[in-house]
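Project outcomes to date are best conveyed with an example. Our students and postdoctoral researchers have been running inverse folding experiments weekly, and each run begins with a structure described purely in tokens. The record below, which covers 281 residues, was selected by the lab manager from last quarter's runs and is presented without edits.
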């Protein structure tokens, strides 16, 4: 009787899991099908796949907006996301190493103040930051979107790296110091390679958040040739009185590909980095 009850529970659990999976994947399947539908059939249509598939949506998406090709938007997103990953990983790793491995006066207070910035809403800083960048003549450039990434302003990522580096044995520092390593060589040759899971976790989150960022580019970028993909997607809705939903959905699917590939390539390190970064050594 117990064996039968266990089997029934397993069947029910797997059936429920499959039902949830279908619910989660249905919007993805509908989006894929809608990208091959005529725009007039997308709104109000409940069919999962088009009766007469068409590639016109992708052709219109490739043409871009206001004379700017969709590949220009892709290039801008790649540049922004790539530089954001580079800046965030480099600056957060150096700040994390200082907080985790070095001893200096005021370290605890500075670390507490850094964590306290997580409680400060981004919207509070929008107007002061915009005024600063406007007076510096940096509006309609990528500088306002990237400069903070190179200055370790992402407190969450610094905290994540600090927690990971604290799990590394202190004996590594002592052995490297005996071998004649200074802080720079210790950081580059010993600590940084061992921190790869945390660094890749930071890279994944930074890439996805920057790739999908809408508010930042909307505030600081004015020229269509500087727009990343999120702004371009919004433009497909507002460029005419009749929204081009077909092209918008096609661009949306194309925009998902880099994020999906980036995540699949490093998902193993993501789980490892998140699991170990919450353990204090």
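After processing, the design step wrote out the following sequence:
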């Amino acid at each position: 009787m117990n064996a039968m009850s266990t089997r029934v529970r397993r069947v029910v659990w797997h059936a429920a899991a499959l039902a949830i999976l279908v619910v989660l994947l249905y919007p993805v399947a509908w989006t894929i099908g809608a990208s091959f539908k005529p725009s007039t059939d997308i709104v109000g249509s409940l069919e999962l796949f088009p009766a007469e598939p068409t590639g016109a949506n992708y052709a219109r998406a490739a043409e871009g907006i206001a004379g700017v090709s969709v590949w220009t938007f892709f290039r801008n997103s790649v540049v922004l996301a790539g530089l954001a990953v580079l800046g965030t990983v480099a600056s957060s790793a150096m700040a994390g190493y200082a907080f985790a491995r070095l001893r200096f006066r005021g370290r605890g207070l500075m670390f507490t103040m850094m964590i306290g910035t997580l409680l400060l809403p981004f919207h509070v800083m929008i107007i002061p930051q915009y005024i600063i960048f406007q007076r510096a003549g940096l509006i309609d450039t990528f500088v306002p979107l990237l400069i903070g990434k190179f200055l370790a302003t992402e407190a969450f990522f610094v905290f994540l790296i600090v927690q990971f580096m604290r799990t590394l044995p202190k004996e590594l520092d002592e052995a490297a110091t005996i071998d004649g390593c200074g802080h720079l060589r210790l950081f580059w040759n010993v600590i940084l390679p061992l921190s790869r899971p945390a660094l890749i976790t930071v890279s994944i989150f930074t890439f996805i958040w920057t790739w999908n960022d809408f508010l930042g580019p909307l505030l600081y970028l004015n020229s269509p040739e500087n727009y990343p993909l999120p702004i371009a997607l919004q433009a497909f809705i507002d460029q005419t009185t009749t929204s081009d939903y077909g092209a918008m959905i096609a661009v949306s699917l194309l925009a998902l590909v880099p994020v999906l590939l980036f995540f699949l390539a490093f998902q193993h390190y993501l789980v490892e980095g998140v699991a170990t970064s919450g353990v204090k050594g």
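The radius of gyration is 24 Å. Residues 277-281 have pLDDT under 50 and may be disordered. The training component of this project remains on track.
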